[in-house]
Amino acid sequence: MDIQTVFFDMDGVVIDSEMLHLRALGLTLEMRGISYDKDILDDFVGRSDRSFFQYVYQHLDDRIDIEDFLKEKDIHFGNLISELQFVEGFPEFMRAVKEAKLQTALVTSSTSQTVRKVDAVLHFTQLFDLVITADDTVTHKPNPEPYLLALERTKADEERTIVIEDSTYGVIAGKAAGCFVCGLTTSFDASSLQSAGADMVVDHYRDLQLFLQ
Questions:
Q1: Residues 42 and 56 grouped into a single domain
Q2: Are residues 207 and 139 part of one domain?
Q3: Which of 8, 89, 123, 135 has the most CB atoms at less than 10 Å from its CB?
Q4: How many structural domains is the chain composed of?
Q5: Final residue belonging to a domain, choices 82, 100, 125
Q6: CATH code at position 113
Q7: 18-31 vs 49-59: helix axis angle to the nearest 10?
Q8: 203 and 169 in contact (C-beta within 8 Å)?
Q9: Could you give the CA distance from residue 130 to residue 103 in angstroms, rounded to a whole number?
Q10: Helix count (H) and strand count (E) of the chain?
């Protein structure tokens, strides 16, 4: 495969943050006195916060104001943000990508506000040639719109583009956009990522770095 471009999801791929996001979502409900089954949080790994609160509105409490809950979730996440770290192996892999002069994009279901908060801690957005957030698209993963927009703006060939994803919804989106998708097992196990359509699955960035070489 003649690789030209690498698209990265953010949570669980660049930053080790999935559990922090889920904690913030849960805290938002708990502070408002809304009871919920904690297992539902796992169903929203790799999906937008808005989709979670839409579920809450439809199934748990139709009195909530989704916009208010989104703001509260961002506050809770901001209080946890000092705990953020890069996914193990990401900095070294990104150095190899830069040395190979490959084009890069961050394609995340998080809002631009969340990305800015994370960037204030880890200073990582300058590593990417393009950043696509939830604010840039109408539909979100598993819809391919975020990756299709990234392909359009980078003028990349989907057949020469690798998408790195940790969630089943992200894998589905990347494949629907026509890209080669690598699943990283930071959030889902290998069989789940393969069932979603991942072309390859790795447990660590060093395995993907060998593939690039």
A1: yes
A2: yes
A3: 8
A4: 2
A5: 82
A6: 3.40.50.1000
A7: 40
A8: no
A9: 9
A10: 10, 6
Predicted local distance difference test score (pLDDT) of residue 213: 65
- Give the model's pLDDT for residue 191: 97
The confidence score (pLDDT) of residue 174 equals 98
**pTM for this entry:** 0.84
Q: Assess whether 72 and 46 both reside in one domain.
A: yes
Residue 166's Cβ-side half-sphere holds a number of Cα atoms within 13 Å equal to 27
Residues 21 and 113: beta-carbon distance below 8 Å: no
The residue out of 28, 58, 82 marking a domain boundary is 82
Range of the structural domain that residue 28 is part of: 18-82
The residue length of the chain stands at 213
Q: Please give the Cα distance from 68 to 23 (Å, whole number).
A: 17
CA dist., res. 52 & res. 47, Å (int): 8
Q: List helix spans (H) across the chain.
A: 18-31, 39-42, 49-59, 66-80, 90-99, 112-122, 145-154, 168-176, 190-196, 205-212
Q: Report mean pLDDT in 10-residue bins for the chain, 213 residues.
A: 93 90 94 94 86 95 95 91 92 95 96 92 96 96 97 97 96 98 95 97 91 71
Strand pairing report for 5-8 and 161-165 = parallel
> CB of 198 within 8 A of CB of 171?
yes
Angstrom distance (rounded) from CA 76 to CA 93: 30
Query: Which residues are CB-neighbours of 144 under 8 A, at least 6 positions away?
Result: 173, 174, 176, 177
Residues 169 and 204 in one domain: yes
**Which residues, other chains included, contact 143 with Cβ-Cβ below 8 Å and sequence gap of 6+?**
137, 173, 176
